[in-house]
Write a structure and sequence with these properties.
single chain; about 300 residues; alpha+beta; Trna Endonuclease, Chain: A, domain 1; 6-stranded antiparallel beta sheet
Length: about 300
Amino acid sequence: MLYKFDNNKLTLIKEQPFKLEKDLEEVVNNHLQELTGLQLIEAYSRIDNYIFDALAYNKETNSFVIIEYKKVRCDHLVDQGFAYLGTMLKRKAEFVLKYNNINNKNKTINDFDWSQSRVVFISPAFSNYQLDANTYIKMPFDLYSIKKYDNILSFEKIEDKKSSKIDFVNSNIISEENAVMKEIKVYTEEDHFKYGNENTKTLYETIKSRMFEWGDFSIDPKKVYIAFKGKTNIIDIQFHSNYLTLWINIRKGELKDANNFMEDCSTVGHHGNGDYKCNLKNDENIDYLMSLIKQSWNKNK
């Protein structure tokens, strides 16, 4: 619940539900990049026998995202999500064509990372089953809660802690879901730990715990790196056999680095976000590194 606090008095700010689902869609589609970081490709996108509420592109993962809006709680999101992803994997060329038409590009199917495809559900309410499923099973879905209060909009991702110990092979799933999960991967921190050693994991956990002292943020494992996110990426960390590569999401010329600890990577291709990176083998300069990360925290949290 939201309250207005004025002169030591609390006044409840009442939720004003969206009258129509299209009202919800228009608000988010018009500000999709700002709210989610995704590029809107097409609203009401028809492919095969489905009409998706919206089709988007995730530049960070180089993959497509299907967006489904729900004005009221729906108890069939899991089935719907797998059906949508199944259609995507069967009709890849049509998704690429829509992307090329919007962006005036000439990309092919092989230019995209289909393993990181996702379905995003945006709704004022989700059932306990959906929340539990999204938390404990490695599903390729993201849930966003949206609520409207007069001239205030609440929009937040429902964070999950997907377990790497639960696999769809042990679940009672239909063939469509099996086919989807053979091609689509939901990454966890543990997936990245296997590329490093105990030292790199300790360095990673040190950075993470130090950042949690500043406040909450989300951890979003991708294919190549693990993203620490506020409103956007703060830092990205990639595991190697005996060191970490860390990118700080600040543009060239904006980082105050008196010791020249970070390397300028603005003119070369790189996986992480931002124009600065370093390779970290030990915690010798961890205090100074945290002071650099704090600059990105203040900017991107």
